[in-house]
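Handout, page 2. Input:
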Amino acid sequence: MTTVTSGLTTQQENRPQAAAKPVRWAADAVATMREGARLRLDYSAQSLWRVDRVIDGIRREGAPYAAVETVLRGLGAYAGEVIARETGGEWWATGGDHWIRTPDGRLWDPVDEARRCFGGHGSLRLLCRDATAAR
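Output:
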């Protein structure tokens, strides 16, 4: 789990401006998984089991990080959207990095957690479990 301790955002109607990119990355990942892997992702916490398995499969195939960086970013953003929807959290961004801020004030880095999964040291499912535990 990666927890971030600082960040800024500007509000724009219902979603923070910081949400624009990760929401798009998540939607792209959902479409890619549906079309390429025939895997349906429904923005539920349970779907993160499948996402963890997809990342594990990519890692086991020995794909170089540079070749899968965009996919990992999308799957991390997808996990962030799951956390935001489950907790009522919001996206925060600073310096090009994006986090989810849950209502209890904690900041979560699902994009980095996807990278950690690829390295064999993380879990988007467990990140979501930890983020939603305080609800």
